[in-house]
Amino acid sequence: MFKRDVNLYLNDIQESIAAIEDFTRDIDCEFFHNDRKTYSATL
């Protein structure tokens, strides 16, 4: 079975965090909860 290096997983997590920060920048909580696309993309 192929085992992926843990550093690749950590890099994926860092990239996901950066994307979530980009997606949620400059929006308020109400908009976040009412925007299904942003909500689904970040949870």
Describe this structure in words.
This protein is mostly helical. It has one domain. It has 3 helices and no strands. The longest helix has 19 residues, at 6-24. It is elongated. It starts with 5 loop residues before the first helix and ends with a helix. The mean pLDDT is 92.
Structural topology:
Blueprint: H1 6-24, H2 29-34, H3 36-42
Key descriptive features of the protein:
mainly alpha; 3 helices; 0% strand
On the 0 to 100 scale, the average pLDDT is 92
Helix share, percent:
over 70%
- Secondary-structure-derived class: mainly alpha
Low-confidence spans = none
Distance between the termini: 29 Å
Write the element-wise H/E pattern from the N-terminal end onward.
HHH
Q: Which overall shape is indicated by the principal axes computed on the Cα atoms?
A: elongated
User: How many helices?
Assistant: 3
Q: Please, how many domains? A: 1
Strand content: under 5%
Number of strands: 0
- Estimated radius of gyration: 14 Å
The largest pleated sheet is described as:
none
Could you give a short description of this structure?
The chain is mainly alpha-helical. 74% of the residues lie in helices and 0% in strands. The radius of gyration is 14 Å and the shape is elongated.
